[in-house]
Amino acid sequence: MVMITNSLKIIQSSEVGQALRHSLPVVALESTVITHGLPAPQNLKLARDMEKQVRQHKATPATIGLLDGELHIGLNDPELERLAGEKDPLKVSRRDFATAVLKKACGGATVAGSMFAAQKAGIKVFATGGIGGVHKETPFDISTDLQALADTPMIVVCAGAKSILDLPATLEYLETMAVPVIGYKTDRFPAFYKQDSGLAVSLRLESAEEIAQLALTHWEMGMRSAILVAQPVPAEDAMAAEEIDPLIEQASQEAREMDIHGQALTPFLLGRIKDLSAGRSLQANLSLLLNNARLAAQIARVWSACRQRKSA
Ligand code: PSU
Ligand code: MN
Can you give the pLDDT at residue 139? Predict the structure, then answer.
C-alpha cells in the first residue's frame, strides 16, 4: 500500500494571520509576476513596492508563493528576495501545486494559483497586473485564471487582460461563467498596456464602496464567481495602440515560429514586448501593478469595515 504523506503545507505569516483574525484589511498579491513576468532586478523592487503601496493604504499585503514545496501566504522580505532570485522557479497554477509539493520546488503563484491559496486563507481581495485569458489562434489555450474567476468568490483587481490575448473571447468566457466585469471609473475594458480595448465592461462603478456592495450582493444570493475589477493603466504610463499593437503582433509571430506554447507563452510574449519596446512596456507594467495594489487596499478597507459592522 502506498502511504500518502505529502500534503500541501501552508505557512501563513503571523502578520497576515493576525490581520485575518481581527477582520482587518488584507490584500493577496500574486508572485508569477515576480518569478516569470518581470526581469531582475525590477522584479524584487516591484514586489517590495507593491507591498509598500498596500501598507501605505492601511492594509496588510499577503504575497503568495512557494518555497521548498510549501505554500506561503505572506512572504517576508528575505523570502521575497529568495523567490525573486530563484534560478529555475515553477510557474504554479492550480494543476501545479502537487508537482511543487512532490519536487519541493520554489515557484511563483499565478492568478489562479494565488486565488486558490487566498481562498483557503479567507482573503477576499486580490491584486494582479493582468489576468490570463483565451490566447489568440490557439482556441484550447485558455488560462486557468478564467476557471478560477468562475468558481472563487473573491474581488480581483486588474488592468484588464493583456492584448496578447483574444480579448473578445476572454470577455465572452467571463460572461458565460457569471463573472461581473467592473470598469473602475471607465465603461471600457482596459487592455493592460493600453487604457482601452474598445470592448465594454458589464458595469461601471465609481468607488470602492460600490464595488464592495456589489460583491456582497452577488455572493449573498449564492453566486460563487469572482468580481473582476478592471482599472486602466495610469494615463502617463499608458501606451498608444499604434505603439504597442505592432510589437504584440511581432512577438506573437515569433512565438508561432519558435513553437512556444503552454506555460511558456505568456512569459515569452511579455519579455519580447519589453525588448521590442525598449523598456516602455515595462514602465507601463510596473505602473499598473502599483495602481492596482492601491485600489485593492482601498477595497479591502471597505470590505473589512463591512465585516466588522456585521459582526458588531
Ligand atoms: N500579469 C503580469 N505579469 C504576469 C502575469 C500577469 O503583469 O506575469 C501572469 C499571471 O500570474 C497570470 C499568468 O496568472 O501570467 C497567466 O499565465 P497563463 O496565460 O499561462 O495562464
Ligand atoms: Mn495557457
Answer: 72
| Residue 243 · residue 280 · CB < 8 Å | yes
pLDDT of residue 309: 83
pLDDT value of residue 150:
98
Can you give the pLDDT at residue 62? 98
Q: How far is the CA of 141 from the centre of ligand 2 (A)?
A: 5
Q: Is the dihedral of CA 283, 286, 289, 295 positive or negative?
A: negative
CB atoms within 5 A of ion ligand 2 belong to: 141
Q: How many CB atoms lie within 10 A of CB 257?
A: 8
Place of cell 501545479: 96
Q: Give distance in angstroms: CA of 295 to centre of ligand 2.
A: 27
For the segment 221-245, the average pLDDT, to the nearest whole number, is: 97
Please, which pLDDT band fits residue 241 given cuts at 50, 70 and 90? very high
Catalytic residue among 30, 51, 124, 194: 30
- Assign 156 to helix, strand or coil: strand
User: Nearest-CA neighbor of 248 among 263, 268, 262, 264?
Assistant: 268
Pocket of ligand 1 (CB under 6 A): 30, 32-33, 36-37, 110-111, 128-130, 132, 143-145, 263, 266, 270, 285
The yes-or-no answer on residue 175 being catalytic is no
- d(CA 85, CA 268) in angstroms, rounded, equals 18
The 10 Å CB-count burial string (b at 16+, else e) for 146-169 is bbbbbebbbbbbbbbbbbbbbbeb
**Mean pLDDT value across residues 261-286:** 94
| Burial of 116: CB neighbours in 10 Å, binned 0-12, 13-18, 19+ | buried
Q: Note the pLDDT of residue 90.
A: 98
Would you state the pLDDT for residue 242? 96
Active site residue 9: no
**CATH domain 2-311 topology:** Indigoidine synthase fold (3.40.1790)
**What pLDDT, on the 0 to 100 scale, is given for residue 2?**
58
